Amino acid sequence: MRFFAVEAALLVGLMLIYWLIRGAFPERTADAFARARQIIHLEQSLGFFWESGWQKQIIGSRALVEIANGIYLYGHLPILILCGIWLYAHSRGTYRTYRNALLISACLGLFFYGLFPVAPPRLMPEQGFVDTVAMFNNTSYEIQPSIIVNHYAAVPSFHFGWALLVGIALIDVSRSLWVRSFAVLFPTLMFFSIVLTANHFIFDAIAGGLVVLLSIGLAFALESFRLEMRRPVGHVDSA
Predict the structure, then answer these.
(1) Are 135 and 237 in contact (CB under 8 A)?
(2) Model pTM greater than 0.90?
């Protein structure tokens, strides 16, 4: 239990530093909106600028909007934390690798947030987007400490990226059909929630997924290097 408490305190501290740094970046509004328009043009040219059309399909149903809002607001950090605890209990080594992947992705994310701010679709009503969270759950904005808020940290989307990280970790560790089904369902639902609530473009989710996949690869490489360094000098693997 003592080791778990130390690990939890360390991880919370590092993630708090991440949020504080992210929130401290200057709000380069003009750059953020210009880049968001570039993303729209890119998606249009590639044929998948579907976000506003998808949102129009649910905007008339409060129940569907509330479901999308709920997944976005309450399915991010709580599931990430529960998955971390579950991994720690089931496979300490695997937990360490995916924890490192989380931290690596956070560092990469800060690089993009600082240099390439992007406005989320919800701040672009002229493009047909509606801020669904503001419609029914505006208090969630009001209770966020301003010191950690960055309105233009849209790319990469870690709402989706870290949901994908959870899914990959669960599939890696568990052979249970229920766990693996959840591992597929969770990032899928999170993908649709970030788009339907107009918090992210599809491009943002793709970027978040790619950053997380790169981070997982780096984390496994780091773990292999760590194990190699711990191998006794002169040790030779048996055939």
Answers:
(1) no
(2) yes
Distances (CA, A) of 138 to 38, 92, 133, 135, 198: 28, 39, 6, 7, 14
Q: How far apart are CA 222 and CA 126, in angstroms?
A: 46
Helix (H) or strand (E) holding 21: helix 2-24
User: So where are the chain's domains?
Assistant: 29-230
Query: What integer is the mean pLDDT of 87-93?
Result: 93
Residue 67 or 234, more confident = 67
- Give the separation between CA 197 and CA 131, rounded to whole angstroms: 6
Report how far residue 7's alpha carbon sits from residue 108's, in angstroms, rounded to the nearest whole number.
22
Does the structure show a pLDDT above 70 at 18? yes
Tell me the average pLDDT across 18-47.
97
CB proximity list for 81: less than 8 A, separation 6 or greater: none
With tokens 């047909």, the residue in question is: 128
Number of Cα atoms under 13 Å in the Cβ half of residue 132? 30
